[in-house]
Structures are given as C-alpha cells and as structure tokens.
Amino acid sequence: xxxxxxxxxxxxxxxxxxxxxxxxxxxxxxxxxxxxxxxxxxxxxxxxxxxxxxxxxxxxxxxxxxxxxxxxxxxxxxxxxxxxxxxxxxxxxxxxxxxxxxxxxxxxxxxxxxxxxxxxxxxxxxxxxxxxxxxxxxxxxxxxxxxxxxxxxxxxxxxxxxxxxxxxxxxxxxxxxxxxxxxxxxxxxxxxxxxxxxxxxxxxxxxxxxxxxxxxxxxxxxxxxxxxxxxxxxxxxxxxxxxxxxxxxxxxxxxxxxxxxxxxxxxxxxxxxxxxxxxxxxxxxxxxxxxxxxxxxxxxxxxxxxxxxxxxxxx
Length: 315
Description:
Largest sheet: 5 strands, antiparallel
Helix content: 40-55%
CATH topology of the largest domain: Aminoglycoside 3'-phosphotransferase, Chain: A, domain 2
CATH architecture of the largest domain: Alpha-Beta Complex
Mean pLDDT: 92
Number of strands: 9
Oligomer: single chain
Low-confidence stretches: none
C-alpha cells in the first residue's frame, strides 16, 4: 500500500456523493506496500480503506473486487467491498479504477508467535478451499513466466555474483518445478503486514490484488518464507511446524506436494527477490513509498538452496 496518485479532500468528497456513506471526515495516505495507492477514509458513517489501482489493468479490477466479496460472503476475515448507489463496487477516481472496502480491526505483527502462525496456516487453507468455489478465471500476474521475464531484464543490472545466482535459480525452477501440483486461486502476497490480529486472534487478511490461479503450495511457501524466517534466512522450526500443521489439518497435502516443497520454497523466495530488485532498479514515482530490501530475499533464497527443506511437517 503506497500513494502514487495524489487525491484532494474536495475530489474525494465529490466522488463520495455517489455512495451512501455520509460525508468525508478525513483522508490519510498509507505508505506501506508497493502496488496501489491506498488511503484511510473516514466518513460520518464509519471508517474504510480507499484503494486506487495503479498497475492492475482496468478490465481486471472488478474480478479482484468480486473475489473479495465472495470470500467475505463465505465468512473469511477479509475487507468487504462497498457498493455505490448504482450497485457498482468499482468506479473511476482521478482517472483510475477505485474501490472502497471495510476497514478491519487489529494490527499487524512483526514478530508472530506460534499461536499466530497456527491461525494464519488455518486461514490460508480455508481461503484456498473457499476460493475454489469462485468461478471466475483470474491469471496470476507474477507467476513463473513473469519471474523469468523480469530476471532477464534485471540480471544485467546486478553484480556478477547476484546475476549468476539469479540466472541459476531461474534455470533450476524451469527444470525442477512440477507442472502437476494442485492449483487454484491463491492470495500470493500473504505477508505479515497483510494480516491483522487482536491478540492471537486473526481479525483480518488484506491486499488480494496479486491474487490469481497458481500452485496452492506456492502460496503456502510464500507465507512460510515471511512468517517463519529468522534474520539469517533460515526457518524457525516451531513457527514453521505450527503453520504447516494447521494448514495440513484443513487441506491435507499430497505426497507430490511434500516432495516439491524445497523447490516451491525457492520459487517463492525468487519471486520476491525479483520484485524487490525490480522496484529498486526500475522504480515508479510516488510520494509515499515503502521500498522493501531485496537483500532480505536474496538471503532467504540462499538459505533455501543451502538447506533444501529445513521445515518438515510433523503431520
């Protein structure tokens, strides 16, 4: 969540006239994240989040918002889109697609404990099950093809060691990643800052705008790499086992997924190393932007290569 498109209070107040949300009280830009422009929006009827889509093609935005509505209607703790008086979830603001969603209670946890890792593993499996009943096709915008394409653009900009690591890992993924794992709609970005807790209770899951169809195991690997990594990139056994066991209890993993786990952990580390390298070397302009350190995911990737799978299931 960043601010690339600047909005005035008068501009948003006029736009809100098409909603039944009362009048604007405050509008505050949110600096976290890197994909869209986001604002905390308060009106006389309550508190919301306003998102202006910066990179998602306009024709695809309604699919993401309808996915949110589907998940919320099935009881998952994700933001519910708010329709305007014409029953539209998405409308133009500042010349770009925009949506209002409910603002959820709780806060993100920078250092999650075992109970919170259990909660996120349980929720991710339930998300995969519920999303499986959503009928729309939704491409994953940052899939393995995206990784290979971006790697070819970024590798010449890196030093010799990083360029070699990047090319070697892309080659490894192309040779080793299975093509027959269970697939479905995945969140694809379930980092700690995209989940909210009230104590150890998971109260919200945010930012579904990277969602798309891919290997379900890839989504699990993305989550484990963020929630369970130590500063040196290795995985904390207790947090990792808690998250994986909670997921497995809701959606039992196949033998093929167990076998593919080391490769998918590496695939997830590669994807986020690449996106952070892209943001560093080919940045977009914006007033409030949080740049994520690509070196952190280089460290995670190297740790996964060195260890294979250092986070086995207990189940």
